[in-house]
Amino acid sequence: MRTVGVEEELLLVDPSTGEPQALSAAVLARAARAEPSEETFEKELHSQQLEFATHPCADMTDLGAEIVRCRQEAGRVAGEIGAAVVALATSPVPVTPSLSTNKRYEWLAQEFGLPVQEQLVCGCHIHVSVESDDEAVAVLDRIRPWLSVLTALSANSPFWQGKDSLYSSYRSRVWMRWPMAGPNEPFGTAADYHRRVDDMVATGVLLDKGMVYFDARIAERYPTVEIRVSDVALEASTATLLATLTRGLVETAAREWRAGTAPADHSVELLRLAAWRAARSGLEGELLHPRSMRPAPAAEVVHALLEHVGPALDDSGDADRAHKTAGDLLRHGNGARIQRQVLERTGSLGDVVTECVRRTQA
């Protein structure tokens, strides 16, 4: 069974106002004193952010428990210095981002300017184990059309600097300001993948290979593929669903490769439009269907994804829970819909953050 690990980025906020707080250094120091042997938490680009990484898990129930544990531990440590953590992909209330102290981040700010200051966004990165770089590239080439559906499911960033962006995942639009981010043409072989990465680094625009921000890539530090298209999900159950579907996509793609099934030939231009449509719509309205790249109702596209990975979900024992959680999302809404509902009910973006803090810790 393939193992899965999840990295989530959280916002540190004032629990009374919902305003992001530049306290990551203090939270990390306190966490290190409490658990000196653990390295669960890391700093991120901005000091209003905190990142955690789960242990790799083969069982999705265990992974879900890991996500809950890490969120609760982050909340406990932040609470000790008067802050709270919240799984929001952008801040609903206005914020002035504060860059973390780090030579790498300082280089980014000097090289890329204002877009770096605007990158106070929180994503979810999912690592799925693979047997080799050859298998990894075969997977990357075959999952491309389906990644936009993960963005739609996870969408949790409708607000930007105190305003409704009209997007469900505005985080993904901000992220696309990086020139090395987004979808790619098929690689074909592991050698071609590494050659393309080397060519990108050789331009001097990138500091190193860690700045190759493909939607999905071969991880540098782990024997995994890393899928990077999702907002941080409001609910831990949604994060677990994303991990489950991502493992299903990886396993399905690997099986197709072994069976000699060629990747879909969708162009990067179509994949970019599918990503934009997912960011704009989320689970409301239409998405571009991964098979045809034509508009289809969001529910139809989500069910197509479940059908596509169905045999892999059956084999791992995850099918029933995946169908139930996906059905709940379609009925009750993802983070973007919930945030807008809270604002409509209360009229306060601060109340939106407060409610999302509660759901993050639930």
Automatic annotation (TrEMBL):
Q: Which reaction does it catalyse?
A: L-cysteine + L-glutamate + ATP = gamma-L-glutamyl-L-cysteine + ADP + phosphate + H(+)
SUPFAM superfamilies tied to this protein: Glutamine synthetase/guanido kinase (SSF55931)
Signal sequence extent: none
Give the transmembrane region(s): none
The GO terms this record gives for MF are: ATP binding; glutamate-cysteine ligase activity
Which keywords does this chain's UniProt record carry? ATP-binding, Ligase, Nucleotide-binding
Q: Which domain of life is it from?
A: Bacteria
Please give a single GO biological process term from the UniProt record: modified amino acid biosynthetic process
Per the entry, what this protein does is: ATP-dependent carboxylate-amine ligase which exhibits weak glutamate--cysteine ligase activity.
Q: Which family does it belong to?
A: Belongs to the glutamate--cysteine ligase type 2 family. YbdK subfamily.
Its recorded name reads: Putative glutamate--cysteine ligase 2
